[in-house]
What does this fold into?
Amino acid sequence: MATKPGLLVLSILYFGLLFGIAYYADKRRELGKSLINNPTIYALSLGVYCTAWTFYGSVGRAANLGLTFLPIYLGPTLMVLLWGTVVRKIIHICKLYSITSAADFISSRYGKSPGLGGLVAIIAVVGILPYISLQLKAISFTFEIVRPVEELFTYSTTITHFTQDATFYITIILILFAILFGVRRLDVSERHEGLVAVIAFESIAKLVAFISVGLFVVYGMYDGFGDLFGQASKIQKLQSLWSLEKEGVYSEWLFLLLLSMLSILFLPRQFQVAVIENVNETHLNRAIWLFPLYMLLINIFVLPIALAGRLHFPNMMVDADTFVLTLPLAAGQKPIAWLVFIGGLSAATSMIVVSSVALSNMICNSLVMPILIRLPIVRIYEEATLNTTLLRVRRGSVAVVLLISYIYFRLVSDHASLVSTGLVSFLAVAQFAPSLLGGLYWKNGTKAGAWTGLLVGFGIWGYTQLFSQLIQAGFFPQSILTEGLFGIHLLRPMQLFGLDSMSPISQATFWSLLLNTICYIAVSLMTRQDAIERSQANLFVDATRYSDTQRTGLWRGTANTEELRGLLQRFLGEEHTKHALNVYAGQNNLNLSSGLPADSSLVQYTEKLLSGAIGSVSARIMVASVVKEEPLKMEEVMDILDATQQAISYSQELEEKSEQLQKLTRELQEMDALKDEFISVIAHELRTPLTSIRAFSEILYDNLEIKVSKREQFLSLIIKESERLTRFINQVLDFEKLQSGKIQWHMEELQIKDVIEDSISSISQLARDKLIQLHFDPTNIDAAVYGDYDQLMQVMINLLSNAVKFCPKQSGEIWVQVRKMQDHVEVRVKDNGLGISPEEEELVFEKFRQVQKATQDGNPTGTGLGLPICKRIIEHHQGQIGIAPGSENGAIFYFTLLPAEHRHKNNVIMKLQANH
Amino acid sequence: MEDKKKVLIVEDDPVIVISLEFLMEENGYAVFIAKTGEEALELAEKHEPDLILLDVMLPQRTGFEVCQILRAQDKFEKTKIVLLTAKGREVDIKKGLTLGADAYITKPFSTRDLVKTVHDILADES
It folds into this structure.
């Protein structure tokens, strides 16, 4: 034991160096020349991931299980690829809303729920405590191992009283260190420059130590890599160490990868250095390649050292976890052993200090403060300065965390290997993944969903990991492991639900993360968010849209400036408060001396400052105690919160608008095409008679000696074509008038038979010319209708002249009938002409459509406007016009009109309605 | 009467037909009359006219189609085709000429121009 005091002195000297570095970094910061505002320092500080487990345990695992130590380091390397998006967003959110821990993050995301924050804090503490105690164990056993070489094979762990246990004193030193540089004072930004500088330094120290021993083993004890692997390959059982051909190795790799990927994000110490201590988001860019490089370097010599250990100590006489130390000791290289000891100490202490600071933050802000400020007995509101209370709580937490870890180490951790305990902690914090990552990208994740997922995941973790460790430590009967709880086979903690094809850690990872995720999603889908949850969900998921200068949040209220200042002073101290308010005044161009307006902006600023110090939950409660909050109206809440929805609906509106535009364009194009067609048809209809008129006029002009009969024929054709032209022009004008509604209607009560008789007499000459018989019997017809006499005559004349046109000469017959129905009067015009086929029925009422059948006598055909004009006139009379069935052998046109009485009735009703 | 040149008039408006018929007969041509494109193809087959006065705006089959169908046959290679088109439809004129028409006359036409055009084209051949 001769070296033990020496080691203790070495340790104390080393701690002295660390104190010096931390002190220097803090001084630099006060001078405004931050040491850690540097991407390389940031990347190195991430190396806190590599603990004593890496330093000693990786070699142990490699010596026994081969390459399975690798996924623990490959996972983070893979995860680094996602850092650019995931971690950047988390950092952005934490800075924006002054969030200082994963517990604060999750509770804040789900409506600033105090309970949820507490749950996360408990999971973190329970999950990490064994891990810290594991580091203490590592420190302790290195004290035992570094001893003269002849004692190497005979050492045994003896239970010493804690006052004689070097580890206990190391623990005390670590508590002091953590308090001094992690919780010396309250800081709004919650950054610890001294601490981070030390972490970065220790990362270098452990790397240098590990590479030194690696180089020594490979080149000092053997003749390089070739020699070492050559010797190892001669031994059968060592070959399997660097091959992957083992059963179940792939699922094991998969789950270890998954676990380590999540751990690099959610382990409290990683969250602390990667997110909370981050000075500048752009530092991520260097960390993304430098951190994986660091991991690669520290793993290069793991397998060579493991092989060398197995070669050097055959028959497993020495614990493989100690190869890093025992190999140089066995080779008599004490300085290298001492260097390794320092490296191991670095690995352990950096993890312990950062973890305990991160945990104390969670304990204070998410567990103690929310309870403390609600307890009336504590009378906390009247205490002059709360910042000392806060500091006491935090320092106390650090001490408690480390002391419990020490006790756990003394009682339990002897039974667990370095590796298994580390994975237990990994799995505990991996339970944050669904709620935290879900909350980052999925707005519909609810508080209830997060609660359920976390509780289920934590429950399975507790049963499969913590419980089985306690069984192994002898606190519960061993039979539970083999028979299952209460003898239920499915409940064996290491083969839960009968899953025995995987290793215990793989099956626990599988079940806990699967059920956690399912519960989170399912319960989220089944439950509704309240207003503040919804608000926070939007603020988190859309965080990249908000910048630091914007005041975000749901708060609206008024307060007294002095009260707000008092509140800040109680938690931050006078100097900090003054500084913070100066910054605020500067940002908002306000004059501090003339007093700050106590508006919602200042209230939110205050809440943000307090969030940094005591967590978002407590900050909200404290601010609420001095601010009269005006309840926000629901509409305003919706306004503030649903920025996304607005954007979505806005884009939907745009889409609709553009659809409408497209529709309008199509309609316009159709109308344009119609107009073109209309004009070309009109031009054709005008040009045709004009062509004849001109031709015949020129013929007559040039042929003065033309036969009289010819001359008469030509002249009469000129007259006919002129009439045709006139008629067409009139119809176009009529049609245009009807179409545009410019026509003057002279509505009156009239007898339909008068209209018919007048129309018949005006076309009788036409009929007589073709020797067509017209049948109409006006007797007994008493059908009074309401309408425009002249327009109705036009309809009748159109229908009659159409009939005449299509009737055969001599044998042609036309019948006109009037039928008085209950609610209308119907007029039918029937002929025995060519008839109309069913396909043509619809077309004839469209303008310029003509029945294509040649007329009986070769007379000029119609203009194509007659029937469309009729249709519009009848429609104006609220009647119908059409072709009756059976028109194939002689067309039957009909139209209906409202009887006068009916119209009269309607008028009365309308008048009555107008009077009321 | 052997050497009387044959002219086929294709026009759907009966009044215009009367004027064209008179003009052609007055100038010593044998006249055939078709009112539709179908009829025109039928009569062209039957009488093998020397010249066709072809209205473009015909119901059903247009003058262009008739022109195209005729030109596709060797038999009508030498048959002269004069299109009757609306004034201002330069596109139609171009189309007609590329389809193989020999000349065009716009409606309303000058009777003297019409007669001269028909005469010149037929004289060209001999």
In short: Chain B has a mean pLDDT of 87. The interface with chain A takes residues 13-16, 18-20, 22-23, 26, 35, 57, 59-60, 86-87, 107-112 of chain B (CB under 8 Å). Residues 111-125 of chain B form the longest helix (15 residues).
